[in-house]
Specification:
Radius of gyration: 47 Å
Strand content: 5-15%
Distance between the termini: 95 Å
Oligomer: single chain
Largest sheet: 8 strands, mixed, barrel
Helix content: 55-70%
Length: about 625
């Protein structure tokens, strides 16, 4: 635009100079002066540095007015030229022809981004010029007119094509920019999904462990501490106040963790689990102190809808020195498990833990390769009617006779079976062996068989129980399937539905270890149960366990009201047995009456097998 106006100014000066002396100076001054001023101001107005200082809205208004202002200035220039035409000689008139034509062509080409302006300038330049030339009767008037019209039309078509090309280019560039912006937004979303936890806006599991591995790969004087956090009581918050409350708790705790001093990085590993790296320059005591302070911070109440929500935290800690990332995580997780067992404390993975862990790894490898069908041994522990001294039923228990003759208890190998998806295989073997080897004295008694959460939520295993001919030697009514509170609650609706199927199929259902989980009789009565087995922890240390015995009495009274049998587990002394009977417990199980024995041991003992109320066997109870 400034160049178009510059050419117009030059042409004005050329014309004024050519007609100097032909027309009066006053005519030239008052005709040329205003046009020069206007053209100069418009050139300055459209200079890039002036345009850059205006707002986009102001530029848009100026462009919208351009057809009007451009056509008006072109009209002024043409009128100035036509006013001089009659006074000029042939040479001066030819100059006017040239100047008018040049100005018109330059305007068309220079203003092709504004077709309306170019067309307006063409009309006000060409039409008056042709009219004047033809009216005066210039020698070349016709040729000049035809040339001006044809070239102007051609230039307008070229300008129109260039304008359309420019519009297409702008649209293409805009579309490309839009696609690039969308791609950038998508890439940002994908990055966040891949590396940022949607809820808490801290690193997710993948991102945290990648950062952890990066930290380990960099040479450092002090390797960081790896901490794993598990929230205790979070499920209760979710159950009582809803998932929005749980989300609020997770978000606030994530912020507390991210802002905590000496934390290098942190992330949400899933659910209510978090991980963090603590400065390696901290000594053992300082690291523990910081983690204990973090536990206190996490336990601070969190406001939610006029409620104050609280959760506790367990932290497992391990120094990362000399270990690969996976090994550090495994050991910190081990420490976290111990911390949860200790009621929400900070626990550092110790040398003793390393020994136990290595032994567990060794046993796990043995279990992976174990021929369970030949190595599993079945033992039986009777449940006694205290008043008559008769055996009321018998619980089937298992022992793993590992390579080398080492007897391994269920609390060790059952978790291994769960982690390797061999629980159903293991349970089938135990059931088959128990029924085949069942001592004669138990042939008419009820059999208690333990099931895991994996068993009860596996519909194929449930169908096997309902359809297998393994139970032919005994009736299904003789079989009580035992499940813990945790198994039933963890299994959820699927577990409840499968229990109903099994009970409809003739099996009876017993709830094992009652009282140490999160269930209650108000929820238990909705399940298809026949018996409750009260956990042994309530009768431990009879002389100082008044609260435990009070709970036993309460459970016994409430269970009777809803029609459930009660068995007290873990009775190991005569004092415990007498105390339990005084509260109304008749069915008891424990080492005071009989330790678990193999089929051959019971068969060799002869009949009757129970004559031991005067014998207290002080051996550790294990299932």
């Amino acid at each position: 635009m400034p160049f178009v106006y510059a050419i117009a100014i030059v042409n004005l000066l050329l014309v004024a100079n050519a007609f100097h002396g032909t027309v009066s100076d006053i005519h030239l001054f008052f005709a040329t002066g205003p046009l020069l001023v206007i053209a100069s101001l418009r050139a300055i107005h459209w200079h890039p540095w002036a345009v850059a200082r205006r707002s986009p809205e102001k530029i848009s208004r100026d462009l919208a007015m351009l057809p009007v202002t451009g056509t008006a200035i072109a009209t002024g220039l043409m009128l100035f030229g036509l006013s001089l035409y009659p006074y000029g000689d042939t040479q001066q008139q030819s100059l006017l022809h040239y100047i008018a034509t040049l100005t018109s062509f330059v305007g068309i080409l220079g203003l092709n981004p504004s077709p309306k302006t170019a067309l307006g300038m063409t009309v006000v330049s060409v039409v008056p010029s042709i009219t004047m030339f033809l009216y005066i009767g210039h020698t070349n008037a016709v040729a000049i007119s035809v040339t001006m019209v044809s070239v102007s039309m051609l230039l307008l078509l070229i300008a129109r094509a260039q304008y359309q090309g420019l519009i297409d280019l702008i649209r293409s560039k805009t579309a490309l920019q839009h696609r690039e912006l969308e791609a950038a937004k998508l890439n940002d979303r994908l990055h966040k999904q891949a590396y940022i936890d949607d809820l808490t806006q801290i690193a997710n599991r993948r991102s945290f462990f990648e950062s952890f591995e990066t930290q380990l790969s960099q040479p450092a004087i002090d390797e960081p501490w790896l901490g794993l956090i598990d929230l205790d009581g979070f499920k209760i918050v979710n159950d009582l106040f809803g998932h929005r409350a749980g989300d609020t708790v997770l978000t606030i705790i994530a912020k507390r963790l991210a802002d905590f001093p000496d934390v290098i990085c942190c992330g949400r590993l899933g659910g209510d689990e978090f991980g963090f790296l603590l400065m390696g320059s901290l000594g053992k005591d300082a690291a523990v102190n910081q983690c204990e302070e973090l536990v206190r911070l996490i336990a601070e109440p969190i406001p939610f809808q006029q409620q104050l929500l609280t959760v506790q935290a367990s932290i497992g800690l391990r120094k990362t020195a000399g270990l690969a990332a996976s090994a550090c995580i495994e050991r910190a997780d081990w420490a976290l498990y111990k911390a949860k067992q200790n009621g929400g404390k900070v626990t550092i993975f110790s040398v003793e833990d390393e020994v136990v862990m290595q032994e567990k790894a060794r046993i796990t490898q043995l279990f992976d390769r174990a021929d369970l069908a030949s190595q599993l041994e079945v033992v039986y522990q009777p449940i006694i009617d205290f008043d008559s001294g008769n055996i009321q039923s018998v619980e089937v228990l298992a022992r793993w006779n590992a390579v080398g003759g080492t007897i391994i208890m269920p609390d060790v190998f059952i978790p291994m079976a769960e982690s390797t998806h061999r629980t159903s295989e293991l349970t089938k073997i135990i059931i088959a062996k128990a029924i085949i080897e069942l001592p004669e004295i138990f042939s008419e008694k009820s059999l208690h068989i333990n099931l895991s959460v994996k068993d009860i939520t596996n519909i194929d295993f449930v169908n096997w129980l309902l359809e297998s001919d393994v139970f032919e030697p005994v009736s299904r009514e003789q079989v009580l399937l035992e499940l813990t509170e945790t198994a039933i609650l963890t299994g959820g609706a699927q577990a409840a539905a499968n229990l109903a199927l099994l009970r409809a199929g003739g099996f009876r259902i017993a709830l094992d270890d009652f009282g140490v989980g999160q269930s209650s009789l108000s929820r238990i009565h909705k399940l298809p149960l026949d018996q409750i087995k009260i956990d042994k922890s309530f009768c431990d240390d009879a002389s100082s366990n008044e609260h435990g015995w009070a709970i036993v009495a309460t459970i016994l009274a409430l269970s009777r009201q809803i029609g459930l049998e009660c068995v007290l587990e873990g009775v190991e002394t005569e004092e415990q047995a007498i105390q339990a009977r005084s509260l109304g417990v008749r069915l008891m199980q424990g080492y005071y009456f009989s330790k678990p024995k193999s089929s051959s041991q019971f068969n060799d003992a002869g009949s009757p097998v129970f004559n031991s109320r005067q014998i207290a066997l002080h051996e550790p109870t294990a299932k």
